[in-house]
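If your schedule permits, I should be very grateful for your opinion on a structural question. Kindly check, if you would, that the fold set down in the tokens agrees with what the sequence suggests. Thank you for your consideration; the sequence and its tokens are set out here:
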Amino acid sequence: MEEIFGMITTVLTFIVDHAFSINILLAITIVFFERRDPKTIWTWLLVLYFIPVLGFLLYLLIGQDMRKSKMFKNKELEDVVQSAVLKQEQKVKNKRIFNDDGKLSRYHDLVMYNLAAAKSVYTDDNDVEIYTDGKEYFAHLYEAISTAKEFIHIQSYIIKNDELWQALEKLLYKKVKEGVQVRILYDSMGCRKMGKRDWERIQRKGIQVGEFFPAFFKRLHLRINYRNHRKIIVIDGTSAYVGGFNIGREYLGLDKKFGYWRDTHLRISGSAAVSLHVRFILDWNYATKQNLFENENLVHEFVPGQGKEGVQIITSGPDTQNQEIRDNYQKLIGKARDHVYIQTPYLVPDEIIVNEIKMAAYSGIDVKIMIPCKPDHPLVYWATYSYVGELIDAGVKCYTYDNGFLHAKGVMSDGLVCSYGTANMDVRSFALNFEVNATIYSQKTTSKLEKIFEEDLAYCTEITPEVYAKRSLAIRIKEQFSRMFSFIL
């Protein structure tokens, strides 16, 4: 142990002694070799200038640009996916993707974008169920898990060793004894409260475990800024879950700090469940160095679903060249002719989204945005509040949800198309986190989600220009300070 501390001391001493030279090299790297947003570049340059030693350490922990990295490149499905994409691209060009549905026809270019940029295949045999209450969602999930025959795959950003997880662990252990394969993939940073002994206990029960971006040394995370924020559960390949619910007692509304937890989670049955399963397998393969595509029991031919809803599963993260989920949000806002509803716990968008929202509002589109009334991350919350002020000046109607904590993440456009999943309306979800959303081309599901949004408004307080103008000096200072660092939060 003394040797380790000695090494750390030596490294820190070197950094302090050569801080100026290191800062110059980092500045050159950031400006000339990393394709970043100019605001992000200037933010990091200011950090390096004013706090050179701490700034260098912060850059190592949260500033590295992984967008050029080939570490996530997967060859297993490349040829198959490319073939399916090319076939669908031709179909979209021939205007046959929506079966001549006039209302959805204006979204052909969104389908095409997702095919070309995200390699996301469009499927129209899906059935979508919506869950907004944690108790209802987990009750349904337990029931679905209990019927599993082949495998249960769980990917979660947060898992806490509380009564919710203990009940789920007991059920999963029961399924293992029945011969069902169970795999759990967790994010190292998000699940830092789960100890090594907890995971060892889980593995002894026959549950396979994968850790995404494990700590470098004990709890030291060198890639702390890149988090796998995806929440995916796939059961037997026939149904899959995606949305905002992690695994912890607060999601049942049992945490006094947050109170009632208002979230949105989707259960998708149909071919889109295969897309979610592929995403899980790719993440699992990277984290564990295994190749589940070689397991025929997991990738058998899928029987088409019985539903009629169109879905594209969109994933994005620091391993992609584009910001696909951000671009989906942008197009849904820009294509609206009547209204756009947005729910997000964090509103720290980039300039593209801010301008798109403003343009919609200036054009007479009814834009409503719902955020929480209380923070779980203070800096992000006050940055959110600063953007609210800018948007209400453009005519956007912004509301705080007062009945507990709002964690739902999605955009709804004209009652026709929506995108819900794990991505917040912030630059972290757009560029730094590994996220997954379902873009749903369905008047049925989108209308249901919009009705839920309208029901939520009964528990909201509108932030009018008059209300916003009355905020205290302390809040104004918090806003400006938080917004200054919003691009690296």
